[in-house]
Amino acid sequence: MRGKKIIRGFFCAFLCMMTLLCGLWPAVGKNYVYAVAAEEEAPDPAQLYAASAVLMDADTGRVLYGKNEDTPLAMASTTKIMTCILVLEMGDPDEEIDVSAYAASMPKVKLYVKKGERYRVGDLLYSLMLESHNDSAVVLAEYIGKQFLGGELAKKDTAEYSVEESKQAVAVFADLMNRKAADIGCEDTNFITPNGLDAGTAVEAQTGPASEGTADAGKVRDHHTTATELARIMSYCIKFSPERDAFLEITRTPAYSFYANGRNFSCNNHNAFLNMMEGALSGKTGFTNKAGYCYVGALERDGRTFVVALLACGWPNHKSYKWSDTGKLMEYGTRNFFVQSLKAEDESGVLAQIKPIQVIKGCTGQLGAQAWANTAINETGRGLTEMLLKEDEKVEVGVQQVKILEAPVEKGTVVGYVTYSVHGVVYRVEDIMVTESVDEITFKWCLDEVFVRFLL
After folding, report:
1. How far out from the chain centre does Cα 455 lie?
2. What are phi and psi of 185, to 5 degrees?
3. Which helix (H) or strand (E) holds 406?
4. How many CA atoms, within 13 angstroms, populate the side-chain half-sphere of residue 3?
5. Stated pTM of the model
């Protein structure tokens, strides 16, 4: 009897232990998952040095993380990514161009070009992007801008330009920069200089293709962008420009040397991020007293391309702040966002909503019967088939379809849409189409039906 009590007590203790463990297991699991998630949470804005910051999916332009991302701020020499891509798209790297007195007068950092010297465009692009030389930027801007001046200025030797004539050519180039920015979706970017030096201009002085007219005449607009739009420009440079390969070749080069005008020049790449992380792709630093330290950089890993843009990321002596912020944002991106399909997880649930549509005055195989138009999804679609998403982000699928049609209805008629969105933004649309034509009931058809069914 005593032995049975001992066994029963041991069994009860065992059950209590198992119950306790089973009760604790879900909590342990949640705590573990939460701990992992906490390590991969988005950086607290207060933990970033930059006043404005963005992490962007370069393929879609989707902002994955933002801190004051739409605040207009000066962007210093990160401007030069736009200068570089425009010259690549509109110029010839092998062409030799002249130096004006105005270009030679630019402040440090500079190549120290001299009036009347001639340089190869390609060499100046390395000077522009590796060493961030301000005088090289103006020489290149004049080269492209003068082509749009027309008349004698277009034919005149740039070395003979007056300061005002040089400024005209640079202003045209700045206008081309603004047009390109607008073309790729930037709405709050204003380029005034090709090198990013702090500048402002009266709205009434902007008379080129990208000007805003005279509504704000008298106001002064400064040289600025937002972190979102700076990231968008970099995304264009590395993913969508026809000269993206040339852009990447220049910005990824560790060092470049060339000889011109009896002098040897050496350019070293100051983008330390290229050696910081696996997959580092491109980037450009910048600094002015107004802008502070700025940076825009890209990383490609496992079929994913991330862009980080930082504005006002510290002032001297905090030159390394931008590398700290870039590392935090890139780590957050690579650990949390993965390529996922935009198709619905439950495709059958979507298909169940795609139904035949009643057709008024439609022919059928039976006199007096209701006509219906069969429908199906055209899965060719428009937009993305996949994008970067976090594991807990859901694709929202919406189905919109008309309820009634009037004959005649042709095969292929679009009668609705299936939309795939994330956080309310639509990234993919598929048409719902009629699969078979439905003819209209006519008097002749009625006579034929009566004849066939009643007289024969």
Report:
1. 70
2. 100, 15
3. strand 404-406
4. 0
5. 0.83
